[in-house]
Amino acid sequence: MAQWVGSCDRVLEVNVSRRTTRVFNISKEDRRRYLGGKGLALRYLAHRLRPGTDPLGPDNVLAVFGGVVVGSGAPCSARFSAVTKSPLTQLVASSSCGGPFGIALKTAGYEGLIVLGQASKPMVLEILEDDVRFLDADHLWGRDIPATQEALELGRKDGDLVIGPAGENLVLFANIASGHRFLGRGGFGAVLGSKRIKAIVARGGAFHAVPADPLGFDKACRRATATIHRNRFTGHLYRNAGTASHVDLCQAGAILPIHNFQDGQDPRASQVSGWAMKERFGAKPSTCRPCTILCGHQGTFSDQQTRQWPEYETVGLLGTNLGLFDPETIAVWNAQCGRLGLDTISCGGVLGYVMEASEKGLITSPLRFGSPQGVAEAIDAMAFRKGFGDDMAQGVRRLAEKYGGTSFAMHVKGLELPAYDPRGSWGQGLAYAVANRGGCHLSATLFPLEVFLGFLKPRTPQAKAHFVRFFESLYAGINSLPTCLFTTYAYLLEAPIARLTPKPILAWTMRHLPALAVRLMDLRVFTRLFETMYGEKLSPREFLQAGDRIVVLERLLNAMEGVRRKDDTLPERILAEPRPCDTTARQEKRPWWRRFVAAGCPEPPGPAQNPPLLALDSMLDKYYTLRGYTRNGLPMAKTLRTLKVTVPFQDGFDIVPGRDTPKDKVVQIFFWILGRAMQSASRRDAVFRRQLASWPKGLTVLFKVLPYGPRTALRVDDAGKLRALGDTVSEREADLIIGFKNMDTAFRMLTAQLSTPDAFAQNRLSVVGDLAIAMQLTRLLDRVQCLLYPKWLAQRLVKRVPSMPTLEKWGKRAWLYLVGIPLGL
Ligand code: SF4
């Protein structure tokens, strides 16, 4: 058997319209910049895919890449990545899979495969060491995935990519199967179906990759394996109870989706946890190969059939989210989706939407929460696009556009939401909102830090942007080695710095010094595996920078399709609707509250009854700054230059050179001062007290530079005083919004170059909310400005300077400057 040292650099490009092939080599520069896997697949997609391409047309591109670590024998290294333009979101989709195709392709002699064009009739693409065959597949068209795999006569070293009826029928969330694992999310199956490719088979075993530094590689593998065995998640939870072990953790943290995300907890949840499945069905590993963690399991069910346990996402979306808690039924639907080639997350999301829409009378369907009646038939109808199944096959976004109910259409950018409710994990909410492929839990996972491990507080925006950015880049890097994302638990948490630092210190550093915390993360297991296999140095900084580059390139491609800040959002339900469990979950964390309620007292007023709404806007601002995007979410020219990101098809798309200007900074500082000054004055000034006594408690006022500029907010607390909330309040939470037309207006007003009356007269200020309160607020603002500025300046700002005895004025002014503003008193 022939062998390479380090990596196989060959890429096979196949045009199925013309039945032609081309082989080219990956350049050293591309390898350093994009590593392999997702990174290289994206780099080649970017140079072939024009903005506006029809995802189901002949011009779409499907790129499937392994990487340096694939097939090396390193722990969990059976992964490969794919990218394409998604028919579901119309944006770039990426996916990672642990099936045999990656290793088979590599041992057939290719690190990557790029598929172009559209065949005129069904075909199977067969890749051999020295040949590519275009085989007729008429006899396979219409068969389900297991039947097709059987007909392909796959050997021990072969790997497959196969679609089922869902892919053939262009269901927008159809999967591609490889062995019993899947390339899911975004409709990869529909893209292959549109190219009329029933299967791609790589006949592997001709080549063998050996590490450039065998001793170093062995050592790196031993270290990786030891950390995996030692870690609680990888060495215990996943190995024994699979990813469905998340059920208990999510139930405790109130992030388990119930009834289409109407609630986050249910007492029956433990019936579908991995531990319950282990007890009922037994556990036999059924995993990607090779794998050291072993998260996949099979069990024997009551009909004596052996089936794969459903993963956590499937349990969440096809089970608890539909109000169903029987793991056996969920496993049967999971197998049905697997046979037909449907993504279980999107399928469950669609069923959840249809059940709620049916209950609300928007759709006529027998599907109801808590009842398995009609679900199996609905899954079949989706895959074969029969009757109403044709609509369901289009996903939640299009269903809601047609039938209504957008407020409970649980998707981001068209991709159905995974099974972690962001109302109990704000960082995960930000990760969903900014994920390039849409509602995705694998672009950055914050819920383990917020809910499972308790390092970050789940319901604050604090530090979330830093960690979302870090995990996005890290995961993009891992998917480009590629290896399994679950290794992150072991490689990061079992590194000496994390293991030896007391948890409270670790948590404090992560919350209060996130920039330092992410720099201290030890990524050396990942980089050592790459270095020793490939034979060239890769520092943790370069590894993360490659991840940054991949994320930004993906964002740039999406920006060229029209993605902006308005798209980086969450479903209305998540942003505006508190859940019944929010009160319970908070009570559980506070024993005094439990006692208070148990004593028969009514629930205390305050945050428990009005849980804070997810502060997405402020997290977005911070995230964009860290990523080097404009406030509208576009990568800046400077960011692209630094990361050396280029794309050829930029016709008509302007890359914005912008960044925070000195004016932005000045306005942010003035907003902060103004907020603190208003808060302080409300505690010491009689005019403020009188005026605020007539305002409703909880009233929230937001000052905002339109459209995406700095902001600051004030809220009337229970004592009738103002509280400065900084930039953490979104427009949804505000009762009154004072909008500055643009940055220039805000700058001129705050630096006393434009008076408030003139700004109103010139339509430079807008008010949304109660006009009477807005006028009273203006008078209070005048009063504070007269205390903040000397008289000659104040006269330029307000219509009439309020009269105040000199001693009182100087006393209050001194208090504001010396105590009120610095200390917030
Ligand atoms: S841990 Fe699970 S997903 Fe990861 S490689 Fe192993 S079996 Fe596959």
From TrEMBL:
Q: Which PANTHER family match?
A: ALDEHYDE FERREDOXIN OXIDOREDUCTASE, TUNGSTEN-CONTAINING GLYCERALDEHYDE-3-PHOSPHATE:FERREDOXIN OXIDOREDUCTASE
Organism of this sequence: Desulfosoma caldarium
What molecular functions are annotated in GO for this chain?
4 iron, 4 sulfur cluster binding; electron transfer activity; metal ion binding; oxidoreductase activity, acting on the aldehyde or oxo group of donors, iron-sulfur protein as acceptor
Source domain of life is: Bacteria
Its recorded name reads Aldehyde:ferredoxin oxidoreductase
Establish whether keyword Cell inner membrane is in the entry: no
Q: Which SMART domains did the record assign?
A: AFOR_N
Cofactor(s) needed: tungstopterin; [4Fe-4S] cluster
Pfam families, alphabetized: AFOR_C, AFOR_N
Database matches in InterPro entries? Ald_Fedxn_OxRdtase_dom2, Ald_Fedxn_OxRdtase_dom3, Ald_Fedxn_OxRdtase_N, Ald_Fedxn_OxRdtase_N_sf, OxRdtase_Ald_Fedxn_C, Tungsten_al_ferr_oxy-like_C, W-dependent_AOR
* Classification lineage: Bacteria, Pseudomonadati, Thermodesulfobacteriota, Syntrophobacteria, Syntrophobacterales
Aldehyde ferredoxin oxidoreductase N-terminal domain span = 8-206
For this chain, the family text in UniProt reads: Belongs to the AOR/FOR family.
> Which keywords has UniProt assigned to this entry?
4Fe-4S, Iron, Iron-sulfur, Metal-binding, Oxidoreductase
